[in-house]
């Protein structure tokens, strides 16, 4: 004959009263009837004490975790509101440049890149006595090849850059002011991809 199933509570809060009832009944006389050793009776009480403490700690920890989560979410919200306002002000500024947005992490580029038509953008040229600085938008490619020319027709590679800006420190090949032309092309895994950027022109005197 199959024995009836023994019930044991599955809800944490019902375990302690269940064990307490067993302890009370066994300690009240059933220990002698069923030959339950005194050590086993004492062990029931130990389990009751341990489980009660563990449940109470779990409740406290849960409440603490809830409070910590609420505080964390509040701080995240405050920071998000502040930073978004700050970045919106940057974007609305008269001197705003898309390159700065990229550097600040304001843009996340998604979707596939057409490696046949992707084209670099030169965002700023700065001519200094000792160099020409070329700012460019990295987008999602590995970097750009930089080509230079003195006539805007014949170009040669003068550098390779993985992070904007590129600095051209070559000295002038002619006396006085010198006209230079630049164009960029993206590369991926060291292979040129896409189209050349628009050609840009500067006049510099680097000696």
Structure description:
- With 207 residues, the protein is α+β, with helices and mostly antiparallel strands.
- The chain folds into two domains: 12-85; 110-204, Sandwich (Immunoglobulin-like).
- Helices cover 41% and strands 24% of the residues.
- The protein has three helices and eight strands.
- It has helices at residues 12-34, 38-92, 98-103; strands at residues 122-127, 132-136, 143-149, 156-161, 166-168, 178-188, 191-196, 200-204.
- Strands 3, 4, 6, 7 and 8 form a five-stranded antiparallel beta sheet that branches. Strands 1-2-5 form a three-stranded antiparallel beta sheet, with no helix packed on it.
- A hairpin with a 4-residue loop joins β1 and β2 (132-136).
- The longest helix is centred in the first third of the chain and has 55 residues, at 38-92.
- The mean pLDDT is 90.
Summarize the structure.
By secondary structure, the chain is an alpha+beta fold. It folds into 2 domains: 12-85; 110-204, Immunoglobulin-like (Sandwich), CATH 2.60.40.10. It has helices at residues 12-34, 38-92, 98-103; strands spanning 122-127, 132-136, 143-149, 156-161, 166-168, 178-188, 191-196, 200-204.
């Amino acid at each position: 004959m199959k024995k009836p199933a023994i019930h044991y509570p599955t809800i944490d809060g019902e375990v302690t009263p269940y064990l307490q009832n067993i302890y009370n009944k066994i300690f009240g006389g059933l220990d002698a009837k069923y030959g339950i050793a005194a050590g086993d009776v004492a062990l029931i009480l130990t389990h009751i004490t341990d489980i009660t403490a563990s449940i109470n700690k779990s409740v406290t920890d849960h409440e603490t975790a809830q409070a910590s989560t609420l505080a964390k979410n509040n701080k995240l919200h405050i920071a998000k509101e502040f930073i978004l306002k700050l970045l919106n002000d940057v974007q609305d500024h008269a001197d705003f440049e898309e390159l700065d947005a990229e550097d600040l992490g304001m843009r996340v580029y998604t979707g596939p890149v057409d490696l046949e038509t992707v084209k670099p953008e030169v965002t700023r040229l700065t001519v200094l006595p000792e160099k020409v600085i070329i700012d460019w938008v990295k987008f999602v490619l590995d970097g750009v090849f930089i080509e230079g020319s003195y006539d805007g027709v014949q170009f040669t590679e003068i550098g390779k850059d993985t992070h904007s800006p590129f600095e051209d420190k070559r000295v002038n090949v002619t006396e006085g002011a010198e006209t230079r032309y630049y164009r960029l092309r993206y590369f991926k895994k060291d292979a040129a991809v896409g189209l050349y950027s628009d050609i840009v022109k500067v006049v510099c005197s680097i000696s």
